[in-house]
Amino acid sequence: MTFINEQPFLPIIIQSGQHAYGVARSFYEAYRIKSLVIEPAVKDRNIRTLLLGGSQGVATQNSSILEFQYVENLDEPAYFVQALIGVALQYQQKKLILIVCDCYYAELIIENKVQLEKYFILPYIDQTLLKRVQTKEKFYQLCDQYQLNYPQTIIVTKQHLPGKLPFQYPVIIKPSNPVAYTNCSFPEKKKIFFVQDAAEMQHIIQSIYRSSYQDALIVQEFIPGDDSSIRVLDVFVGRDHKVKLMCISTKLLEDPSPQNKGISLAVMTDYDEQLMESIRHFLEDIGYSGFANFDMKYDAKVGVYKLFEMNLRAGASSHYVTASGYNLMQYMVDEYLLGIHHERTYVQTKHIWSLLPPKTLLKYMRNEKLKIEAKRLMKEGRYTDALLYKKDVNIKRWIKLKLYNRYLHVKYHKYFHESD
């Protein structure tokens, strides 16, 4: 790690995968520095973990723009702080910036912020605000207060199961506390459940509550529309609680598998000043700072966007902001490390960011108007491959990424049964 030791500062990114790669790539594009990606040590080593490099995601394997390290007990709340301090002590003379790619770790950092900020620069809210936004239930209460739209919703608990719903089937069931849900396990587990009738709803709720998850559940109206009806909004808010950078994107395709529903595979930057202004006012008024990410969907019946959730970190696809010409990590470094304070920017540059190669992306896009625009942007060179970066190519990485592209193509064929 000689190269890292010579750098003026070191980004430390928790959790590997395409989000971590996008963060590391943003730092490299801005400063030509490497990041350190850390992940919990693999507890059970078998032939699969040996072949695939442990639990490390394909996105961060064989990369020259980052270093990778397993850390014992990183995923254990009781040992989390000491595990991170152990990493920090390896680089005592260096400014360390801690970035998370997962809500679980975001909450752990916020809950231990007083101890950790002695060692790291932490672009996150404090615990007082966390308590106001920690679950979807609390977030929707704030939406009511700030007149932000969200789908019709009822809150379900183990003690108060739903009766007749005030909206029609199909409905969506999802956990109010995604962090607690991440740590539970049961055979039918999915990120969200798409439910067709009352009998199926009762079965799913009972299955969830037989697991270790005991917090509230959200039962929500289903908003019709394909992936292109979904918007993703990423924000960076300064230490003065003023929005510095905001960028919105339209989903072109999301992961089709039930286990990963909601994860963006391709997005196109968009612009909606009224929507951005409403989110800006909300964030600034509650005293927010650091990164934030919002998912929402356009409800054609009433002509408004309805918010699904707020994440206390940058979104998994947030490298699209950097790809569009506004480096999200540079804004954070300017604010927290260099003392440079930017005026507010709402990104308007059109650009495509994609984990999928162009051929696969265009094949499975259903919105013909967006497909025409996507072809134009590709022709103009306004397209970024999320993982294939020309300054980070070697034969091993190239082969793995080609295999990964093939895997995604096969996945779409399996779930959509599209023909050529």
Characteristic key phrases:
alpha/beta, 4-stranded parallel beta sheet, 36% helix, 22% strand
Mean pLDDT: 91
Seen as an oligomer or otherwise, the chain set is single chain
The number of strands is 16
User: Number of helical segments?
Assistant: 16
Structural category: alpha/beta
Percentage of residues in strands: 15-25%
Low-confidence stretches: 45-54
Distance between the termini: 47 Å
Binned, the helix content reads: 25-40%
What value does the Rg take, in angstroms? 21 Å
Largest sheet: 8 strands, mixed
The coarse silhouette is globular
Please specify the SSE layout and strand pairing:
Layout: H1 2-5, E1 9-14, H2 18-31, E2 35-40, H3 47-52, E3 66-71, H4 80-88, E4 95-100, H5 103-111, H6 113-116, H7 127-133, H8 136-145, E5 153-156, E6 171-175, H9 178-182, E7 193-195, H10 198-209, E8 217-221, E9 230-237, E10 243-254, E11 264-270, H11 273-285, E12 290-299, E13 304-311, H12 319-323, H13 328-338, E14 345-346, E15 352-354, H14 358-364, H15 368-379, E16 383-385, H16 395-416
Parallel strand pairs: 1-2, 1-4, 2-3, 10-14, 15-16
Antiparallel strand pairs: 5-8, 6-7, 6-8, 9-10, 9-12, 10-11, 11-15, 12-13
